[in-house]
Automatic annotation (TrEMBL):
Span of domain DNA methylase adenine-specific: 154-453
Ranges of residues in domain N6 adenine-specific DNA methyltransferase N-terminal: 9-141
GO molecular function, one term: methyltransferase activity
Protein name, as recorded: site-specific DNA-methyltransferase (adenine-specific)
Keyword Isomerase attached: no
Length: 663
């Protein structure tokens, strides 16, 4: 089925909007169209066995035996409908449409009825009936041919996604929160599964897949398709969790139709209500929403972080509240299968991020600590930079992170960075922010390049050598050192000094404050190079004025603050015999992990400030992945002569045009 057919069927479903206009707000159209599309799809799937199921349901009506097992077997699916009603029959009886539709929906098995309940379908039936629209809407959907032989499951996903995109546009929601472009998913799953191709072809292969932000289930479907492409006899069990009720319902209905267990798709927030506790998976993948805050689950996440530490999901650290992307990654890492002594087991993870998780957060921050935890455990296999304008809801650059706890021997201790930002083709028509797409040739090229990354990076003659770089894990680490310089002061009495004296609470609360003020005035204009000389002169002035010299550390500190003036040639201030650091001159440097910080100081700092030193107590270890910097290629500015020639040519062109106007 081509894309025009998807659009045609989506247009048919969305044509109901013409009936709803006036009685429904545009933002509510999807609340009717999406559940009716699901209902029609379920009906079309069950049509071949409908009469047989109704017959068996009638036979067991008075038997007292739960017929669920028999009805499932008769329908050929994990769901069924016991009623002899159809949407066509319901539409033909306008007066009883609401009652019949409720009976029809109630006759579905619990799992199918639960899907429709998430759409609050009963409320929509009542609202449509009150508006006199129900039989018309039902009639429109009876003409929508969604039989599996006409619309295979894979293609049905495209239709649902098109409807959701339109729903999101009408309601000012973000379509990208619900699904990911299919060609992006294709690249993602192939990068994830590619190293396991041989193992997947073994007889009796069973693989489990999790998407903790599964939306309509596009990624799960793609993983199922790809694994069975390697081995048609493989068993693929897919699991997911979704917060949006409409997306959750569509995903569950899709699994039911495919014969998967719909109970594997949990509803709710993956952070506060993990629907797959204590489970582990072979493959995990996700496209969590970019830059979405996690304030609603702040208490639950922070409690787990503090109470469980490394025994929980978020022991490594917590990112800033306005972006929960790295929480999703920690959640997934927690569900990796352990690797046994023979190297068997383990998991692979792929997740879509924007640029923020690469570098946001200084050393010691939650983000940096999460990156440190991942890299020091040697889980990060590679990062692939994607073209911009690839997603529906954002035009910014995005990245695949590929992680595994079973790296191949040649990848151990290494991270692959692959620049695929030029692998795209322009779309004929933009969809939201999406103006670029990945063609099949681009997907194949990136997968091939990723698989050969180590060889390409080591071959300077390879035509794509500049697109791949391989680093050791520790190359992304650095030591954040605090460089201190001594506080140097001279001491003087000026008008500013007297003003500061009057503003100093520590001095003004002293009983001899007036005497101090008079003594200072007598020394107006005086200046001293050392604190000792200044204090002696001031003390003599206070005594001559008939006062006593105050004592105590608070007074001495306050007096120094009043009289002291920073001066590069001034006296170095000491604390317990050691130079006192000047907070205004404090600086920070990032030193590569493994490099001796004292050698760095001597080489990079002392030639400029010989008296600087490192405060070792403040040194922190941080990790970041400066992807763009590693692939930056310097482009020299155009020669001035070339620019000048271009300007002259433009001037001549303008003069010619002006001449034509005046003739």
């Amino acid at each position: 089925m081509n894309s025009s057919k998807h659009t045609e069927l989506a247009n048919h479903a969305w044509s109901v909007a013409d009936l709803l206009r006036g009685d429904y707000k545009q933002s509510d159209y999807g609340k009717v169209i999406l559940p009716f599309t699901v209902l029609r799809r379920l009906e079309c799937v069950l049509e071949p066995t409908r009469e047989k199921v109704a017959e068996i349901a009638e036979q067991h009506k008075e038997s007292g035996i739960d017929p669920d097992r028999f009805l499932r077997r008769a329908s050929g699916h994990s769901f069924y409908n016991r009623s002899s009603l159809t949407l066509k029959k319901i539409a033909a009886d306008p007066q009883n449409a609401a009652q019949n539709l409720q009976v029809y929906v109630g006759a579905f098995s619990d799992n199918a009825r639960g899907v429709l309940d998430r759409f609050e379908f009963a409320q929509q039936i009542k609202r449509l009936d009150t508006a006199g629209l129900l039989y018309k809407v039902v009639g429109t959907f009876t003409d929508l041919d969604l039989r599996p032989e006409v619309v295979p499951n894979h293609n049905m996903g495209y239709i649902f996604e098109e409807l959701i995109r339109r729903f999101a546009e009408q309601s000012n929601e973000t379509a990208g929160e619900h699904f990911t472009p299919r060609e992006v998913i294709q690249l993602m799953v192939r990068l994830l599964v590619a190293p396991d191709g041989d193992a997947l072809q073994l007889p009796g292969t069973v693989r489990t897949v999790l998407d903790p932000a599964c939306g309509t289930g596009g990624m799960l479907s793609a993983m199922d398709d790809l694994i069975t492409e390697f081995n048609e006899d493989a068993t693929v069990e897919v699991y997911g969790q979704e917060l949006n009720p409409e997306s959750w319902a569509i995903c569950r209905s899709d699994l039911m139709i495919k014969g998967q267990d719909p109970e594997n798709i949990a509803f709710g927030n993956s952070f506060s209500d993990d629907g797959h506790k204590r489970k582990t998976f072979d493959y995990m993948l996700a496209n969590p929403p970019f830059g979405v805050e996690w304030k609603k689950v702040k208490d639950e996440v922070e409690n787990e972080h503090k109470a469980l530490g490394d025994a929980g999901r978020f022991g490594a650290g917590l990112p800033r509240i306005n972006d929960g992307s790295l929480l999703f990654l920690q959640h997934m890492i927690d569900k990796m299968k352990p690797v046994d002594v023979n190297g068997k087991g383990g998991s692979r993870i792929a997740i879509v991020f924007n640029g923020s998780p690469l570098f946001t957060g200084a050393a010691g921050s939650g983000e940096s600590e999460i990156r440190r935890w991942i890299l020091e455990n040697d889980w990060l296999e590679g990062i692939v930079a994607l073209p911009d304008q690839l997603f529906y809801n954002t035009g910014i650059s995005t990245y695949f992170w590929i992680l595994t706890n079973r790296k191949s021997p040649d990848h151990k201790g290494k991270v692959v960075l692959l620049d695929a930002r030029d692998q795209w083709q322009k779309m004929r028509k933009s969809l939201g922010d999406k103006r670029k797409a990945l063609g099949k040739e681009h997907i194949a090229e990136v997968v091939k390049l990723y698989g050969e990354a180590l060889a390409v990076a080591g071959d300077a003659e390879h035509p794509l050598h500049g697109k791949v770089k391989v680093f050791a894990n520790e190359d992304f680490g650095y030591q954040r050192i605090t460089v201190e310089r001594p506080l140097k002061l001279r001491f003087e009495v000026t008008e500013e000094t007297l003003t500061a004296l009057e503003a100093s609470k520590a001095i003004q609360k002293l009983p001899q404050a007036p005497v101090l003020a008079d003594a200072f005035k007598s020394l107006m204009g005086a200046s001293w190079g050392t604190k000792q000389d200044a204090w002696l002169a001031l003390k003599d002035a206070v005594v001559q004025a008939g006062g006593t010299w105050p004592t105590g550390a608070p007074f001495n500190k306050a007096l120094r603050d009043v009289l002291g003036v920073r001066d590069p040639g001034g006296e170095v201030q000491l604390v317990k015999g050691q130079p006192e650091p000047d907070g205004e001159l404090r600086d920070y440097e990032n030193v590569p992990l493994g490099e001796d910080v004292e050698e760095y100081l001597a080489r990079e700092v002392h030639p400029h400030v010989p008296d600087a030193w490192i405060d070792g107590s403040k040194t922190k270890v941080g990790y970041e992945v400066p992807f763009t910097r590693h692939f930056y290629v310097y482009e020299p500015p155009r020669p001035l002569t070339e620019i000048d020639a271009e300007l002259k040519a433009l001037e001549e062109e303008i003069q010619t045009l002006l001449g034509e106007v005046t003739e």
